[in-house]
């Protein structure tokens, strides 16, 4: 999901005709020929952050230091609302920025439209210091790289520590212990107000933007299930296999049998889920490190703890890995400058600027450069939990040409199962597998 799933891919079919002139590198075509090159031409950098925000200031600081180091002027434009639409409009007018800093999940769409240049990993100075897992997030369905990694993140459980201690439970180390804790939070009045108004799990289970699939993915992998099997770049549906069905059945049980999920989950997005946790309505929330500053302020750092999600029944640990890439956009007048910016962004100085210490201005959540020690930049030790989870259990979304329709279909199927306690999980997932198979054929990567 995209960091907090806020950066959803928007429909672009209405602009396809206008984009033909930009090529179709991801669909068997070729990217447009570059214009005459000027190694001193200024760079336009777009970043998906709110204008005037601390993150915009950090991005501008990064660009300023890049200019000092290279002499190449760089201007940052922060856009948050309708970012993808505005990018499509720029593409239609052949006025793409030189650089885009955006989610790893956008790669498939950008490649498909031919809006980004291929990157030769071996030619990127400092690329050998970047973790292989992070480079995986730049790989298209053809196995080639189309971006340079910039920021990474994983997810962990935020748990009401004061509630856990109130009900006399330890930190959960298994799914069974996690479920028991959720039950205790639901039935044992952990806030002590004498009312049955608390629950275990906060789940952003809406179908919008694929939230339900995002939430379920780490648990699916930890239980030995999967969306696909893959061999040599060809995929086959695995979402109706026994382990996958068992995972969705387990999730359904929290909604329907244990009833430990906060009400409204099936229509809840993360913007609605955050207040449920910090407002004392539920005490277990799988989310990212970007929420720590918010919860510290609104709830109190002493009232909750962050721990890795427990291993699955088969002893596997998994977390969805996400982050942001530096995309080198097609049609730039300064391709050499594009690469120099990417190289600066992944360097130790660039990563350190982007991390922004312990402030809320970070545009690098977890560093991708192995030479950067997290503990030397941030004093908040909780960040190390996410870094450890990322490096030991992180897993990116499948490298199909366009993950978006699969994520959406999976969200709708899983949502339908948990929203209807009389539903047949296997039947729903069999239909989902059929949908996956048809989409794989359409995208040309079916096994």
From TrEMBL:
Keywords: Signal, Transport. The keyword Signal applies. GO terms for cellular component: ATP-binding cassette (ABC) transporter complex, substrate-binding subunit-containing. Pfam families: SBP_bac_1. The keyword Signal applies. One of its GO terms (molecular function) is maltose binding. CDD domains: PBP2_TMBP_like. It comes from the Bacteria. Residues 1-33 form the signal peptide. GO terms for biological process: maltodextrin transmembrane transport; maltose transport. Belongs to the bacterial solute-binding protein 1 family. This is Carbohydrate ABC transporter substrate-binding protein, CUT1 family.
């Amino acid at each position: 999901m995209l960091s907090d799933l806020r950066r959803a891919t928007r429909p672009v079919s209405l602009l396809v005709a206008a984009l033909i002139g930009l090529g179709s590198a991801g669909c068997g075509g070729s990217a447009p020929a570059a214009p005459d090159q000027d190694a001193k031409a200024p760079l336009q950098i777009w970043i998906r952050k709110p204008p005037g925000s601390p993150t915009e200031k950090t991005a501008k600081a990064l660009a300023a230091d890049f200019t000092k180091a290279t002499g190449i002027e760089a201007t940052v434009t922060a856009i948050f609302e309708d970012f993808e639409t505005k990018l499509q409009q720029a593409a239609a007018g052949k006025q793409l920025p030189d650089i885009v800093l955006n989610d790893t999940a956008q790669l498939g769409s950008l490649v498909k439209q031919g809006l980004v240049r291929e990157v030769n990993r071996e030619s990127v100075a400092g690329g050998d210091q970047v973790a292989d897992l992070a480079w995986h997030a730049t790989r298209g369905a053809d196995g080639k790289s189309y971006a340079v990694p910039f920021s990474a993140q994983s997810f962990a459980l935020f748990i009401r520590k004061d509630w856990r201690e109130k009900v006399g439970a330890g930190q959960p180390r298994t799914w069974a212990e996690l479920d028991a804790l959720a039950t205790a939070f639901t039935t044992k009045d952990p806030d002590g107000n004498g009312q049955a108004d608390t629950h275990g799990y906060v789940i952003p289970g809406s179908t919008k933007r694929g939230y339900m699939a995002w939430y379920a993915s780490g648990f699916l992998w930890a239980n030995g299930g999967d969306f696909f099997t893959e061999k040599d770049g060809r995929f086959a549906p695995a979402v109706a296999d026994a382990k996958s069905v068992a995972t969705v059945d387990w999730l359904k049980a929290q909604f329907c049998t244990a009833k430990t999920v906060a009400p409204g989950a099936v229509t809840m997005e993360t913007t609605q889920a955050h207040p449920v946790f910090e407002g004392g309505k539920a005490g277990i929330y799988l989310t990212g490190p970007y929420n720590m500053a918010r919860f510290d302020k609104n709830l109190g750092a002493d009232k909750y703890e962050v721990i890795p999600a427990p291993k699955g029944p088969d002893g596997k640990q998994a977390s969805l890995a996400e982050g942001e890439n530096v995309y080198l956009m097609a049609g730039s007048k300064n391709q050499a400058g594009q690469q120099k910016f990417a190289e600066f962004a992944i360097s130790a100085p660039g990563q350190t600027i982007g991390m922004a210490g312990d402030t809320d201005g970070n545009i690098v959540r977890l560093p991708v450069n192995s030479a950067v020690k997290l503990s030397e930049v941030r004093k908040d030790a909780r960040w190390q939990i996410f870094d450890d989870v990322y490096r030991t259990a992180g897993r990116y979304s499948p490298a199909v040409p366009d993950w978006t329709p699969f994520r959406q279909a999976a969200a709708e199927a899983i949502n339908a199962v948990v929203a209807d306690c009389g539903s047949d999980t296997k039947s729903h997932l069999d239909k989902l597998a059929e949908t996956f198979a048809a989409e794989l054929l359409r995208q040309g990567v079916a096994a």
